[in-house]
Design a protein that fits this description.
130 residues, 5 helices, elongated, single chain, mainly alpha
Amino acid sequence: MPDRIRDLFKGKHVGLWVFIGAALVVAVGLAVFASPFASRSPDGLERTVEQEGLSQRAREGESPLADYEVPGIRDEGASTGLAGLVGVLVTLALALGAGALLYLVAKRRSGRAGDGPASATPPVHAPPTD
């Protein structure tokens, strides 16, 4: 494991990982346990789509988790909770992917800033050599 990644799990970054873990637990808890109790009334966007007659066009591109239900699961509460969990996990995967991509782009740009290749640049924490 590269030193920079290993350093994320040590020292000053522990609080960040505790916060991320707690936020993930809260998000999963809300998605699984609170979403089955959400109102069945249409929200503002759904109501506008229905009023403007756009609902037929929206039905053409059906979602795998349309109306927050997982196909094949008969229990409505369990289906909604599972759809919420899938939504949280997909969002987490997209966020991690975007973060990794931004990290790689930043790393590549910082490597191009010097005169030589990035591997020839001494690490920041190394003592200067005479």
